[in-house]
Each structure stands twice: as structure tokens, then as C-alpha cells.
Amino acid sequence: MSLSFDKYLRAQLAFWLGCLLLPGSSPALDLHAERSSPLDLAITGKLSGVPAGTTRYLHWADLGNLPTRRLTLQRAFGLDAVQVTVLFLSDLRAAIPHAPGADTLLATCSDGYASVYRDDFIAAYRPFLILAINGVAPSGWPPPGINYQIAPHVISIAAEVVPAVAPLMDGAHKRPWGVVQLEFASYAERFGGAYRERWAGLSPRAVAGRDLWINSCASCHQGPGRIFGGTKSDRPFEALVALALGDAGYFRQYVRDPKSKVPGATMEPHPHYTDDQLAALIAFITAEPK
Predict the structure, then answer these.
(1) Is there a contact between 182 and 209 (Cβ–Cβ < 8 Å)?
(2) pLDDT one-digit tens code per residue, 200-220
(3) Domains of the chain
């Protein structure tokens, strides 16, 4: 009887270990309280067992312990083809204990650029963290052929992984480099200002403009109610509201070709925005009601 019970326990242990290590699952990562290297990735936000407002760190070597994949990407970083070792954000997310309601990852870069990855986007387009480029780890970046610094981390998406990425509007906004921090966030909390007060009862086209803002414009701009956004732009949201209300034509032209209006402008041009998309963006910025 004791032998049979021992076999039973072993079988149960094997079963549960198998469940923990099913393909696509990720072992838990250690979060370190202190930074050990400039290559450490800061992790903050809604983390299980971590006091609110506290930053933890992931070491680059630890990231390599998770399931990785090698890809060949065409025309990445201005090169015809590069081989990359990647870690999917879905696996990284699963390996970090996070609190209920953390349904969004927010990436912040050293230059103030930012990117937003909601859970549905992560599932549909499979963004990934790049751990090596042509065999070169971040400690040796930029690798040969890339003439600008992209360290310490790069997040990207690729049509080689999900073909639907190819026609994705503003896909470049989901390929930030110089990433220094990931925040586990609640979308409702971090973007609530775009849904409250004047922005609570928007017209249908203003709602479309809100989606455009959060997925694209928030990379450089903070929005109403100081919702999450990048800090590359030094224009407060109120200034954009005044401009959109005062001269919509100027606003449209500036978004499409900033240097045509301000020769020293540093904003990237968006010539692909249609009249309808720009009208939707203006409707959101000015809180056009139903």
C-alpha cells in the first residue's frame, strides 16, 4: 500500500510540474530591488507582493532564461535582414507576478518616448523584446550596420510573426528602442482622463480619435487629465486643444508635415493620415460631444 501511495504522489507531482511547464508557459522571474547594470529593465506598476510606487529590476541574463525564439526580420533598423533573438511580451508578462487588473504594459524610453500595449494587442500582434541582434547582446549595441544607439532594450512587432502587422496603422509606434521601463498598468486607471468629464460623452468620430490618440499620439504627448503619454513633446495638451479649436487647417497640415509650418519641428510627419482620421483626432482633442 505504501509503495502504491508513493507512486501516486510521484504521479501527482509530475502532473503539476507538467502543467507549470506547458509549452507557451513561462517560469517566474526574480525581480531585484537594486539596479545592477544599465542594461537592467525597470519594472513597476501593479506587481504582486511589491509596494505601490516601487521599482524592481530584471537582469538581461534572467530574461534569457525564458522561452526565446530566433527570427529573421526584413528591413529592420534600416538593414535588409537581421537575425534577432526575441522574448514575446506575452511570455514576459506571464513570468512576472502582477496584480489583478493589470491589463496593459506601458513602455518608456530613455528619450521620453512611450508605447502602449494592451492585452488584446499583445494577443493579436505578438510584440516581442529583442535580446540580441545578429548575435550581439545589448552590451555591444549598436551592432554593426546600425548607426544610432538603441540600447538598453528594443520592443518590436513583425509581419514575419503576424502578417496582420504589415497594414497596421502607425506600427512604428509599437517598435520603440531605448526602452528602460515597463509598467504593469490598468488601462482604466492610466487612461481614465480620456473617458471622464468633457471626454465622457464623445461623438462617434471623437471616440475613433481617442483610439488614434492612445495608440499613436500618446507616444510623445500626454493627454487630458494627464493620462499616460510620452514626454518627448513639450507642448501641453491644453495648447493642442487651443490650436485645434482655433485653426483646424493649420493643425491638420502640421500633423501631416510639421516642418512645413515650423522648420525646426522635431515631430515625425504623418502624411498617411486621411482627412477623416484627422477630423476624428481633432474631435477627440476638442471633446466633441454626441
Answers:
(1) no
(2) 999 999 999 999 999 999 999
(3) 25-190 (3.90.420.10), 192-285 (2.60.40.420)
